[in-house]
Amino acid sequence: MDVNRTTTGNFARRFFLAAIAVFAAAAAIAVLLALSFPPREQAALRLPPAFAATTALLIVVSAALVRAVHCVRRERQRPFRRSLAAALVAGMLFVGVQGFALMCLLSSRTPVDAQTGALAFVFVFAAMHGMHVTIALLFLLFVTLRASADRYDHEYFWGVTITGWFWHALGIAWLAILAVIAIAV
Fold it and tell me: Which residues contact 169 (CB under 8 A, 6 or more apart)?
């Protein structure tokens, strides 16, 4: 039996199971937030306060990934792995809180929103960003699992760098989306 195939198969199983666990935890966070702070109808369309929390979480993920790249370049493996784990937890929290924010948006239907379509506009932009963050979270999970298998060092850390750039781009896109939504609302 080829050892490389066995290793690849084991990694694929770990990645699949870890992805299920991360997204199940994010879904549980969204449900717990919805149960704790039930979304209610509003007289006018307002951005959910959860969007402020998701913005902060994106900053935490980006900062943790900058620190991870810094640590791996200097061959400091323990802080590197801790930074990746912190980024992964913050990313999972982002997905959960963003899911809750989208639930809040859906509950804020008003007659004016039905006429202007502002709610649909805001929801589509936020949901599209959430889908991109979901992909970025899978990238981050992949890099974190590979880091736990000692795949990155001071000479090879390209995957960590690209994942960081992806998250930074998502943070910039999120700020642009919030600006456009603020203008539309």
Answer: none
The two tokens of residue 161 are: 């760098």
Indicate the Cα dihedral angle 134, 135, 137, 143, nearest 10°: 170
Q: Is residue 110 within 8 Å of residue 43, measured between CB atoms?
A: yes
Q: Which pTM does this prediction carry?
A: 0.88
Instruction: Tally Cβ neighbours within 10 Å of residue 17.
Output: 10
Q: How far is CA 106 from CA 38, 70, 72, 103, in A?
A: 12, 41, 42, 5
Identity of the amino acid at 59: I
What percent of the chain clears pLDDT 70, i.e. is strictly above it? 87
Cα 10 from chain centre: 25
Position 156 pLDDT exceeds 70: yes
Domains annotated for the chain, with CATH where assigned, are: 3-184 (1.20.120.80)
Categorise residue 76: left if φ over 0, alpha if ψ from -120 to 50, beta otherwise: beta
